[in-house]
DNA sequence: GATGAATGAGTGTTCATTCAT
DNA sequence: CATGAATGAACACTCATTCAT
């Protein structure tokens, strides 16, 4: 039994190393410029070993994606089922998305880039995104019902705007030196998403 | 001389045909799935001819990008130099960006997808974007000075939010059946960008 | 025009060289042991060149097969449409098969070996054989109607026996030093096919 | 000792299972499409175990061949040493060959396909065949001496014709739906081998 | 200048074989 | 001994680029 679990442990460690190397290379070069040979080389194993863990390059990418996004998935489910107002849910959602997407899982952006246009290859990844969209839609609809979100905006547009603001912004943040701190940045994004860029109207004098 | 310019004209026509075909194929298949052979075939010339106009696949893509964004570039310059308020400038900017990015130049998205991470290859394209960002930054700073934009938001963040909202949203619009009309969509994006998703406060009763 | 046909000629010459080299290697090593790389090497061209002439290894094999068997095909059609008795037709058929299969086109045997069990890969080749079988069946049925062939034998069995005798025998002849001359061998095969191995009964004394 | 022989027994059982699985897969897919991994999987052992019984894929195939043909070998020896006429011996030989080759040991055909051209790999298998040929040659020569076989036919040709008729025909029978029953088929093959396809001459009226 | 066949490095993938556990 | 993960050479095939015509 101990024997078994030792082997199993090694296997998982190796798998982890492969995923790590893949993520690194993906970030350095992008999907198409990263070859299985390079991944193997970086891990320090033979090419064939990769195929013992993942049945194809595509499968490796999907596995990487799943690993990367499992936590996010769980977090989103949690937020969705909280007993708080929509505004707070969306706030938490932005926090969560920013945290996972930018800080912990930048591989997201690369895969997204590759996935948008290659529907067939990354069908599975798309479903992940659609799941996320559905959860957020429900929250936004809740907020409209509460009267706190602008009911004249289509929910779908609101969802994409959320992604658009976060992904675009954080991606830049990740790849470039930035003057703005992470916390400030997230605060600004929330501000824009909730109130836009218009200067706040001064509270009417009482 | 006249002979020369006739030849030159034919050359330019050919070049135009190549760019056209490239754009089509890029939209149909994406960058990596489009081969020089296919482009040549669609134009109806030999592969070698492509290389007489563009020294590499990459150079062809950059040339395409430049052609595609020349109009946008001009339009942005025009808006930047208008004698109107910042709010109006940004409104026009959103109209313009939406128009060019989604309606006229969807190739943008493909190139952007390919370009984000491959810094070296698409350096030239990045400069285009940086130019655009600079113009928009100036406008936003103007708006802050006017007191109509939220001065507590870093201009850079505001710029990226603008791109984020437009690109993400319109890309989806381009690739999927959509319930929202183009005009409504642009209206919603402006609304979100200026006011966020919060429900408008009712005008204080007089 | 002359220019055109020069290039075309060179192309065909090269194609011929590829087919030649393929045939040689097929005979030396068999289908699975012959790699596209080896073929290219023997021809003295790059691997890619092979693919400009034949879209896959399989296609190359089929093309080789077709080239090799075109003459046989024509010859069989001719025999089938002759205005002579069935016995003579079968005699000619054996001559023809022996000539083409053993002397001129030994590649046949290799392809047959590969084709029997890999139905899907070599469907096209199988159809060639079925065409041949059909022609021979008609002749044999004719012979039965004439009363000269044994009507109690199923035609199908007779066809396969014809192939069996010729292919098995000639294949050996090709690959081994042989005491029997080619002409004698063909004579013996005809003898066996028509009369079996039983000693001829002496003509009854008058 | 008893322990030893128990282990030995298990070892042999395992070996038998491996050979069985190999035979099955060979029939289902052919030599090149059958991997050591698949064989191991079907047996339910690890790949490494295969190599404890057979030092290579090739050795496994040869061992399978030997096992498969041991019975045939014995049967042929028996027939060869019988005290009956050559005609009867050949008749029995055809029965035996048909029985073993088609009914019990179709694996023969696959191996033969693979073996014909790869002299080096299957040298050992070839020797088996040569032994068979030698025995049959002796019988045929005996028949010639008896005056019942056509002495003008070279014995070697007669041997190959025997193989040719049986193998070609039965192979087809094995792989295709057949109208002819097995017994009839064997009868037809004997008929052709002994008398050819010519219609039997009516007994002279007396 | 136009052509398109030739090039060859590169890709993802397979699989017989080995060997540490 | 059994195991099965690791190996790495080999394979079929692609495609941006070159260059003789």
Automatic annotation (TrEMBL), chains A, B, C, D:
Alphabetical keyword list: DNA-binding, Transcription, Transcription regulation
Source taxon at top rank: Bacteria
DNA-binding region of this protein: 35-54
Presence of keyword Nucleotide-binding: no
InterPro entries referenced in this protein's UniProt entry, alphabetically: DNA-bd_HTH_TetR-type_CS, Homeodomain-like_sf, HTH-type_TetR-like_transc_reg, HTH_TetR, KstR2_TetR_C, Tet_transcr_reg_TetR-rel_C_sf
A single GO molecular function term of this UniProt record: DNA-binding transcription factor activity
GO biological process per UniProt: negative regulation of DNA-templated transcription
Protein name per its UniProtKB record: HTH tetR-type domain-containing protein
Domain HTH tetR-type residues, every copy: 12-72
């Amino acid at each position: 039994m101990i024997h078994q679990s030792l082997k199993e442990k090694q296997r998982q460690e190796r798998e982890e190393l492969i995923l790590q190397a893949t993520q690194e290379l993906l970030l350095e070069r992008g999907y198409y410029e990263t070859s299985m040979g390079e991944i193997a080389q970086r891990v320090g194993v033979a090419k064939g070993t990769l195929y013992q863990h993942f049945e194809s390059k595509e499968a490796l990418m999907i596995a990487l994606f799943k690993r990367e996004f499992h936590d996010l998935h769980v977090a989103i489910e949690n937020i969705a089922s909280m007993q708080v107002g929509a505004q707070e849910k969306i706030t938490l959602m932005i926090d969560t998305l920013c945290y996972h997407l930018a800080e912990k899982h930048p591989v997201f952006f690369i895969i997204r880039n590759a996935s948008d246009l290659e529907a067939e290859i990354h069908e599975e990844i798309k479903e992940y995104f659609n799941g996320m969209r559905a959860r957020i839609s429900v929250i936004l609809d809740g907020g409209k019902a509460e009267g706190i979100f602008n009911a004249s905006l289509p929910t779908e547009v609101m969802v994409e705007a959320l992604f658009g603001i976060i992904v675009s912004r954080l991606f830049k943040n990740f790849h470039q030196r930035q003057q703005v701190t992470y916390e400030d940045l997230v605060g600004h994004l929330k501000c824009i998403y909730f109130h836009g860029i218009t200067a706040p109207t001064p509270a009417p004098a009482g």
